[in-house]
Amino acid sequence: MTQLLLPAIVLLGSSVQWLTGMGFALVTVPALVLLLGPADGVVLANCASGAICAVGLGTGRRHIRLTAMVPLCVAAACTVPAGTWLTRQLPESVLLLVMGGLVTAAVVLVMRGARIPALRGRRGAVAAGAAGGFMNAAAGVGGPPVSLYALNAGWTVREFVPNAMFYGVIVNAFSVASNGMPHLTGTQWASVVTAMLVGGLIGRALAGRLPEERARLLVLSLALAGGLTTVAKGLWGLLLWSA
Predict the structure, then answer these.
(1) Which residue, among 218, 172, 178, has the nearest Cα to 55 in the 3D structure?
(2) Assessment of whether the complete model's pTM goes beyond 0.90
(3) Residue 7 clears pLDDT 70, i.e. is over it
């Protein structure tokens, strides 16, 4: 079953990422965590998301805002070890609960388009980067704090996407260095890479055919459903343990 579900999850996430410019980790992390376990699920999402961001960054390098991205990335690098430490301290049921809760909270905040005065200027960049680095290492979803920072900074979608890609390359590289590589077989790696390539082709083919708002709503709805499912599994595990 894993051999079938793993590439299907990655293909869906890759398609969504290339279709909307966001959402690989939000869509895939809950499913990967449930399929592979918290440790391998998160670090596989880090690897795949970082690779997709590196490829996507090729055409948008000139739009990167280094004055904002340097403090974001430095702050993220500082908090990645804390996220890794947390995942190694908690029992699996508690970890599932924490991961599902982080994904769910992040999706709700992005859906609401929260305006947070603290996420403005250089201090806002540091705060968003610190939160993103911790969340990326602990739960594989470091993008929402950066999305909220961009929203509060008044960035357009065209400005946001290349900067989010740049941030994704950096924070996922640090997360993989801190967490280690996922324990997959050669066949599983081959299926993941193939799914990423096919998903990218599908996403690029659909781009422009699906209205941006509808695509964004689809991404966030899938992520919310996955986050809530992970929370439910964590709660169920705690109930069984306490019984």
Answers:
(1) 172
(2) no
(3) yes
